[in-house]
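Please go through the protein record below and see whether the fold suits the sequence. Record follows.
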Amino acid sequence: MQSRLIWDTDGRDWPNRQASRFVPAGGMVWHVQQAGSGPVLFLIHGTGATTHSWAGLFPLLAENFTVIAADMPGHGFTTRPAPSHMSLPGMARSHHALLRALGIVPSLVIGHSAGAAILARMCLDGLIAPKTLISLGGALLPLDGLPARIFSPLAKMMAALPHPPYLFALRARYTSMVDDLMKGTGSVLAPETIELYRRLGMSPGHVGAAIAMMANWDLKPLRRDLPHLRAHLILATGSNDRTIPPVMTKKVNALVPGSEVVTFEGLGHLAHEERPDLIADLIRHAAGLPK
């Protein structure tokens, strides 16, 4: 079983492949997709995903914007950095290095799940200064109670061992685990989208990066700093999100002055993959464009 995904084979039918290129920055080689013209939008996907998460949204946004998305460090077709880069501050610095290499200054940024946390950290650390940050099912607050006492130590243990990524990859290949994980988000995805997640799940390198990221994640400083966020924060949530329930979004809304909540009825954690048209309308509206 190969550890890393190979672009010429695993990426042969990757969504929006024609927009892809590879960019060295911050000690890594990034898989980047860029298309369109106009105001610059920067998108960061969630843990365990890649640019494929924007498959339907990316071309819609390219009609009005310069859209840039990349695979996170170690995810998909981006090479894996040193372990210190897998923390939230490390991810923020790495993405800043990519933006500098690309020579772009985004006016609006969109992050899904953990991607929203990275963008918020970048804003708070003065690495970017967009007018608006749109959080799609943003994982912006620490887990509470029993999950917090179990999840982080478990992720750290798995990251320290060589075998868990390979065991996960084997289960992804031979069981319904990936289908079950997708159902657990509360989203209903097309079969071809689930197949891409299965392909990622069968890559020990990709899985290992996601585990390392979770093992090094600490959202307590972000929770402390969020009230100082200067960018206008739009918190988009699906009413059926089982990963980051809407109640968590309401807690962030109470923390960040001037933030607003937009709820999409019947959609789950991957709302942007279920209804990219609705998310595109939200982004256009945030940018002051007609829907």
